[in-house]
Structure formats: C-alpha cells, structure tokens
Amino acid sequence: MALDALSRETLWEHDYPSEPLNFRFGAGPHATPLVVGQRLFTLGTNKQLHALEKATGELLWAHDLVADFDAPPTLIRPAVKAGNGASPIAYQDLVIVPAGGPGQSVMAFAQSDGSVVWRSGRFLISPSTPVLVDVDGQTQLIVFGGQTINGLDPDTGEVLWTHGHETQGDMNNSTPIWGEDNILVMASAYDGGTRAVRLTQRDGETSVEELWFTNRLKVMFGNVVRRGNYLYASSGGFGPAFLTAVDVHTGEIVWQERGYGRASFVQAGDSTVMLTEDGELVLGRLSPDGFSTRGRADVVETSAWTVQTLVGTTLYLRDRAEILALDLGE
Fold first, then answer.
1. Alpha-carbon span 81 to 45, nearest angstrom
2. Domain ranges of the chain
3. Is the pTM of this model over 0.85?
4. CATH code given to domain 216-330
5. Do 131 and 178 touch, CB atoms closer than 8 A?
6. pLDDT band for position 28 (50/70/90)?
7. 131-135 and 177-178 as β-strands: parallel, antiparallel, unpaired?
C-alpha cells in the first residue's frame, strides 16, 4: 500500500496471493520495502520479489524465489516457520536478496528487468537484512546467516570470508552494525549473544579478528544503536528485557536499566526515539552514563515490532493493527 504521508489517503494497493504459514508471531510481511528512484521492491512472506512503479503501483516484474529458483519456503531449523524476514537492498543497478538453497544463499537481480545477475553462497540464511560496508576501500556485502557472518563481493557474489556465529534455529534477526574503526557487531537472542570482529583488507584478502563475545547482550528482534565507542540495545529473550550499554572495543557491560520492554530505536542527533513492543514511545538520550528520559507515552495497543521512521519531526510507526503519524514538535 502507498499512503499520502500528510493525509493518510490510500494512493494505490497491489495484491498478490500468499500461502499461510505459522502466524504465531504475526502474519507478516516481515520485510521492509525498498525504494530506489522511481522503483519499489518488496520481498513477501513466501519469498515473492516484486518490482513496482513507485507512483502508481504498476507491476514491473516479479519472481517467486520458491517456484522459480527452488528456494526453501521457510528457514530450515526454526521451530516457528514464519516465512521470509529479510529485506531487499540495493547496490548500484542490482537488488540483492537472501534466497536460500545450494549455491544461492544470496541472489542478485537487475533492478530494470529482474534478470539474474549472480547467485552465491552455501550457508544457512536468517531473517537478518544484509548491509553494505567499506572495508579499507573495498565494498563488501555483509550477510548475517543462520550460523555464520559472511562477507561477499557485491559485484560478483564471491564469498570473501566467513566467521561463525550460531544461535538457536537460525534466528539471527538483528542487522549487523558497522563502524569506521572496521568493527562489525552481530547480536542475537535465544541461545546466542553478541560478537564483535575487526575486518582488515589488503590486496583483496580480508582478515577477520574476533575481539569479544558476550551472552549478556541478547537482541531478539530489535536493532542496535552505536554512538561513539558504545553500543545500546534492548537485551532479553522471552523473559525480562534490559536497556543495555556495551563498550564496543571490549564487550564490557557498562550499564543496564529495567523498566522498558523489548524495543527498537531511532537516533536523531543526540536524541533517541525508543518504541517498546508494548506500544510505549519513549524520548530520551543514550549516553555512557545511562538513559535520560524526556517523555513517555502509550501510543499503540498491540505488538509493535516494526522500527519506527522519523522524517523531520514526524514519526511514523505501526503495530499489528494501526499505522500512525505523530508530530514530536520540539
């Protein structure tokens, strides 16, 4: 669906069939749409990849990764088969998606017509969305798999390096965090934890140095914020969650605070906008000394697991029932 951002008027809708999966934690889709120029790319719960005209919703091309390329319909090891969770990303004139299956953990398609440019990888995939980083002048595609973190050449799909990071049922859900000091952080919940590695690259060869691992920071579905030399995240599994600060160089837990549910974060300068899964919106500031709260309000009533979007002072957020636009003003 496309909505007018000011009036909430529905501008267009595009429908397609979707097979029901395990909806215990929501029916999905679980992936974020991708806008590149005048094109819109979406990857549905059943791994249907659509390219649409952004202004009208006209279908430009589509692939069913399961039917067309024999990708597995769901992750292989999780107890709950909830369907695809990773989002498509853009690189130059490509749209890149985790697919799954022998030799095609990741696939790249031409944005213009959907033709296959490359397919690569034999590792288990996860719900995590890949990211692009610059490793000493070389662009690498970082793919957080089910048992590993992997670096690929986004031009060819060649797997440049692999480092182990396994958690229960391939549920590595959070997007990896990259810093200018070449530190890559990956965070998981369940029986996993958080790991930091440093990447260095010379003459096309990448070295991976593990810096630390801790099971005291477990990110279930939200995101991790890095500010300076510190990481901030909501840590917890199915039990209590703790707002947690970690030293990015040592893995030391700097502080933890109770009083907030599992949450997602948006950083705006020095201000932090936090949305808990229970629908509480919290404005404040994260620092190595703690979290100073400026305001709290209950804004939605069902599970809020989607990261909010801040445009100027307008915050767009959603839960399972509603989509809202809130003016944060000053």
1. 10
2. 216-330
3. yes
4. 2.40.128.630
5. yes
6. confident
7. unpaired
